[in-house]
Amino acid sequence: MSDIEVVRHPRARSMRLSIDPASGRVRLTIPKRGSERAALKWAAGQHDWIEARRAELPLPRPFVPGAVVPVFGESLRLVHDGAARRSVKRTTTTLVCGGPADAFGGRIERWLRSEARRVLEAETLALADSAGITVTSVSVGDPRSRWGSCSSSGAIRYSWRLILAPPFVLQSTVAHELAHRRHMNHGPDFHALERDLLGADPVQARQWLRAHGASLHWFGRSSAGAG
């Protein structure tokens, strides 16, 4: 199977298969000195298990005309209008984009990334200013394993896909990263500051991300392992 990612783990005692819920990619973990050839042969015999687990993954949500996309708490329908400008225009209920149909999905994603950066930068700087916290930069990317990160220099980076989550989830992530500006750990002082910055218990946002976070990675994709 050519789509299996083989990972050698120093503490692994046996072979183990898992499916990345954010990408659908198969991961084969083997002991540090295990035989990769033997492990791949074993994995090839687990086809039914792999397909069953993939069937449980979130459904792909490609950016195509007619699709509905959540944007910071609002549901917006995607519209392709060949006579409209190529740049994306937001109305009360839609995102309208012109130009060639085969470029539609890419333009929608670029708009969403730009909107994510705008909203996250505004939310971050406003909260940082009110709390007297210094932030040197705010940017967005598309990491698979984290929703935000904060460096010791004050640079904060988020997943652009937070714009697809409910506002309280995005705002909780902002409070989480800002709390790291004073506490680069997850100790009691960090959690106390996180709650204070958010003005609420962040547990609800964490629970939402555990339950629904993987599904955000399937927006803009047409199939498992694509995109």
Automatic annotation (TrEMBL):
Gene3D superfamilies: Metalloproteases ('zincins'), catalytic domain
Pfam families from the UniProt entry: YgjP-like
All residue ranges annotated as the YgjP-like metallopeptidase domain in the record: 16-212
Protein name (database record): YgjP-like metallopeptidase domain-containing protein
Organism name: Stakelama pacifica
